[in-house]
């Protein structure tokens, strides 16, 4: 995170952990201008670090399960407020399946990716976090998406992710799309865990945007706010 946002980060975190919903909303609203009213940049610079910090506090038992869920719910509400749901499916749009894998408890990060893709004209199906490996793979085979984006926040789920990616790439008769992986679980001590069968490993939305452009998808030059 950029150090110039540290004071704002601490203020957001304090309101988040204390369940001060209105104050949290007000801080987001007032400070969006720092990012040219670009909600996706705000998410990248502040919301993602907030999510990571909350997860750290929970893992260290410095935050109760109830408070952790409350914080995650509040962040989810803010994201949904600023980014409208795409209610229309278009068969002409490129199809994307997004999902977490393994025993992940949080899917907010992958939901943000889904919102970003919808804002750029993709038809997105979020399979959530409750499917078994077999159910996830079979759903991908059945729906035949152009892209599959899989996320892990826990390093313990990387092996599961690797198994899924390897199986999807094992039979081109069943799946021809590209596989993109990401999530905090892939980055340990600032080093990325490589899964060679994946087509791309994304650190953030900017990374994802650049890769999608290499596939000749039309992506906005600026990650504009969708309101």
TrEMBL record:
A single GO cellular-component term on record: cytosol
Single GO MF annotation: cobalamin binding
SUPFAM superfamilies named among the record's database cross-references: Cobalamin (vitamin B12)-binding domain
GO BP annotations, alphabetical order: homocysteine metabolic process; tetrahydrofolate metabolic process
Domain B12-binding intervals: 93-225
UniProt-listed Pfam families: B12-binding, B12-binding_2
Entries under InterPro entries matching the protein: Cbl-bd_cap, Cobalamin-bd, Cobalamin-bd_sf, Met_Synthase/Corrinoid, Meth_synthase_dom
Keyword ATP-binding in annotation: no
UniProt keyword Iron-sulfur present: no
Keyword tags: Cobalt, Metal-binding
Cited PROSITE patterns: B12_BINDING
Entry protein name: B12-binding domain-containing protein
